[in-house]
Structures are given as structure tokens and as C-alpha cells.
Amino acid sequence: MKLDLAIGFASHVIYLELLNKIYLTGIVLQLMGVDYEQRKKSMTNNQHISWISLHENHVNQLKTQYDHLFRKYSDLDCIVIHSCFSPKKNSLDDQYWPSAQTPMFTHWTPYKATPALIVLKGGEKPELYIEQHTSFWEGPAPENDDWCKTCFKITEVKSLTDAPVRGRGFYIGDEALEFANFKNAPELSESILNELNQLRMVKSEYEVQCIKTATARAAPGHVALNKIFMDGTSVSEFDLLLEYLRATNQTENSAPYGNIVALGTNAAILHHVHYDRKKVASDCSLLLDAGADCNGYASDITRTWVRGSGRATQKFRAIVDALEKLQLKLVEAFECGKMYQDLHDHCHAEFAQFIIDFELSTASLDELVASKVSRTFFPHGLGHSLGIQVHDVGTRLIAPRGENQYLRNTSRIVPGQIATVEPGFYFIKTLLEQLRAEKIGDSMNWPLIQELSAFGGIRIEDNVLATEQGPVNLTRQCLNV
Ligand SMILES: [Mn+2]
Q1: Regarding the domain delimited by 205-473, which CATH topology (the fold level of the hierarchy) does it fall under?
Q2: How far is the CA of 182 from the centre of ligand 1 (A)?
Q3: pLDDT in tens, 87-107
Q4: Domain residue limits, the chain
């Protein structure tokens, strides 16, 4: 059946049937068989994790939460979620952009083989409509519908618009689909989307396992790059990127975000993804911000290493060590009941002290705090919720204070929340120029700042789960560099 679908298109049918009979059938079936057996094994035996039952429990929990929404919005007949699998093309070119799945779809299932539609109705078993694959230019993604067999009522359709979607409903998807007897209710969009985002803040046992596994998958990449870099090898950012992908068994597109590989001054660029080809052999810093994926969930890990023994190198290394101590303290403070913004504020207070301890300024602590100098060196937020999106949703229902404008987590920490804790300390040219123009700029040790600028900056980032018993550092469980 699946083989028929894979090659079942009209114009080439005779040719393909012939090929099929002579040559392909055996190989394809063999490949499918091997693939299926391996997949089943990895899904059921991977680190003794029972993925199927974890996922079933997750879907049941999610169904209860959606049922609650249907009771609240009693005039709503259905919620329709499009997978948005279809990749997009630039209208003037025939090259596809990598496709990103609708996060609310991934919340229900990691199914990814062909375009699909989830239709939810209050109190009923979730329905999954899967579009037949017909293109002979591109093959379908590998089958992974094992996830859906018990949790969903599955129907295969020629086109997703054939799905019997009826009544007044709420449609979620990047690509607008028209259904004959369906009336969308866009006026509900903001309130329903807010509620759905809220459902993603607290992670189920299945989701925690996905993020743990994504973290474990990223760890070998960090270990490999630490070794290559600290061994003194002459390497470029591009060499390191390729090594990271190889060590984590990923392509650039399957990684949850653009891996940041920054040597020296480039570490001051918060999202540096240019991958310089120039090899560097000297005293240098490496900032690596790179994760991995598991079932559509992300890990997000950053490390900063420094090699060499020069005076400035040693000074920079001392800041790296102090930052790591502070980072571990902040992870310990990720406790249920606390406001995440308080951790961010605490980090700034500590950085004001850093500026004194590392002789970056002759001003007093009070002067440094009052003039907010730490924001020059630490301009981003302490961290963010982590899940299907690397910067996950549901934790910024209230805006942060103005001076914390980039903070993405203003929530009260609750059990089941997973967030990153990622303090950073950078020498960013544009921000330093602004500081130089301020009155407090006169107190800064500009020659030292100039020397340290060669190392760019530092960020250390772990993924942390909040539990009633205290924080669990998911990253340090499997990574010790
Ligand atoms: Mn992050």
C-alpha cells in the first residue's frame, strides 16, 4: 500500500511498474523493513524509554485540556491544526525553503511524513487526516505514523481540503485551506492562541523526556568541539560547524536553530552564524551555542572555552570561570515559586560586582548599579522557556520592566517548567561606544576592555527543569565540559 502510494502517479506508471517488478520491489521493501524495525526498536528501547506509552499519556492529557477549552467556548465545533509541512518556494526561484512544522501540531504528534491535518472536537477521539504523497520529484519524509496509531482516528485523503471539516471552528496553520462547510472564527484567535500557548509552558512527562533526549544528543557535539579546540588545533568556525553536525548526527536544517560557532571577536555577535573559513591557531576563545532535536523538541546549550596562556587570555579565563560559578548559582535558584525576572535582576547585580572585581571600572558599586553599566556587558535576557520552539511560548504573559526589555520569561516558576539559564558577558563594540559617551564611561578601564575585546564574549547556558524537589540541570546530567 505504501509502496503503491510512493510511485502511484499516472504518467510514469508503466515504466515504474516495470522497474518496480524487476528491481525496486525487493530493495525498497527490504529498506522499508529495515527502517521500520530499527525505528520500532529505537522508539521502544532507546535508553529503556517507552516512547509510545509516554506519548499516549501526553495525548490523553492534552485532550483533557482541549476538552476544557471546548466547554469554555461552547459555540466552537472544532479546532483544526494544519501541519504546514508543505515547503515554501520563493516565487521567482524553484528552490524550497526548509519547512517548519506548526508548533501546535507538534504538540500533539511528531508525525512528519506528508502534509496532515488534526481535527479536534470536544469529547471525541482526535482525528488525523494524512495527505497521499504523489510528487515524483520529492519523496515523502520517512514514515513515522506509529505515534498516531492508537491516539488518533487516521484517514488518508487525496487532498487535505477533502477532510470533512464542518461547522464553526478555529483554524491554525501557516497555509490557508478552504473547507466547504467550515466557518472560521478569527475573532477568537487571540484568546484561543493565548490559551494554547499557556498549555505549552508546563511540560508533560513525554515532553521532559524529549528535551532530555535532545540534550543528550547535543552533548557529543560539545565534547568533540571542546577537544578539538582545547588541543590547540588550527581550525575555522566552518570546520567546527561541520564537526558539530557530524558528532550530533544532524544536518543544519534538522538542528533546532542556527548553530552559533564564534571564534574570538565574533563571540561578541550574539547570533553569529556566518562560519568564517579562516583557520585560527592562536590564543583564542570559542563560543558554541548549539542544540539538537528530539520529536520536534529542542535543546539549547552554550559553552565558552579559551585556550592559550597570555596575560589577556588569563584575565579572560578568570571571567569565564567566575561566570560559570555564577551560572551554576542561578541554576540552583531556579526554584518553584520564584519570579524568573528576579533571577535576571540578581544576575545584573552580580555583574556590577564583576566589573569591579575584574578592574573594568574604578567607580563604586552604587555608581555602577545606578548607571546600569551591567547592561552594556549583558544586554540579553537571562533565559527563556524551552520546548517545541527554542524560544518557547507561554512565559511572557506580562511585559518585563523596561530595562529588561529582552527578557522572554516573566513567569512565576512552576513545577514542569523548562527554561534556559544563560548569563552572558560580552565586549560589544557598539554598546561600548555608547558607554564611552556616558559620564560613567570616564571610570572605565578602556585599555583592558580593548584587550579583552579580542575574545568577544562569554555565554554559558544550561537547560533546567523545575520540580517540587528543586531544579534539575538536564544539561549537566549528560555534559561535563
Ligand atoms: Mn538560549
Answers
A1: Creatine Amidinohydrolase (3.90.230)
A2: 40
A3: 677 778 888 777 789 999 999
A4: 2-24+44-198, 205-473
